[in-house]
Amino acid sequence: MTSLAAWMEARRPPPPADLAERVHIAGVDVAPHVALADEGRARLAAARARPGRVRESAFRLLEADALFTYACEAALETDDPEAALRGILAATQG
Fold first, then answer.
1. First-to-final CA distance of the chain
2. Which DSSP string corresponds to 34-71?
3. How many beta carbons lie within 10 A of that of residue 48, not counting itself?
4. Which residues of 56-90 are buried (b: 16+ CB within 10 A; e: fewer)?
5. pLDDT tens, 73-90?
6. I need a labelling partner for 39 at 20 to 30 A (CA). Which of 23, 53, 66, 90 fits?
7. Of the candidates 91, 48, 50, which has an alpha carbon nearest to the alpha carbon of residue 68?
8. What is the pLDDT of residues 11-64, one digit of tens each?
């Protein structure tokens, strides 16, 4: 299993430095697509915590979008991409 840091460093073009620096994953044994989706959900929750026209919420929403995009990209690299993508989708609906 590839670590999230190694997976993100291997992206071409590389992720924006600000985004890469803000991704802090505690669990080392979590697949990149799971870790990225978890981070995406956290950013989405932060955006929803401050509804309205709040710039900080807009930035968290953009981070969530980027993280979910990377999560889907990482899911496509798994042995069972369909199951991984279904897992990401199911977790976002919970």
1. 26
2. HHHHHHHHHHHHHHHHS-SS-HHHHHHHHHHHHHHHHH
3. 12
4. ebeebeebbebbbebbbebbeebeeeeebbebbee
5. 999 999 999 999 999 998
6. 53
7. 91
8. 899 888 878 777 765 445 788 999 899 989 999 999 989 887 788 889 999 999
Q: Among 72, 73, 67, 88, which residue's Cα sits nearest to residue 19? A: 67
Residue 23: phi, psi to the nearest 5? Answer: -90, 110
**pTM of the entire predicted model:** 0.85
> How many Å apart are CA 49 and CA 2, to the nearest integer?
32
Q: What is the dihedral of CA 18, 20, 23, 28, to 10 degrees?
A: -160
Tokens of 5: 């840091």
> How many C-beta neighbours within 10 Å does residue 29 have?
8
Place of tokens 């697509």: 33
Give the start-to-end residue ranges of the domains of the chain. Answer: 4-92
Q: DSSP letter for 12, please.
A: S
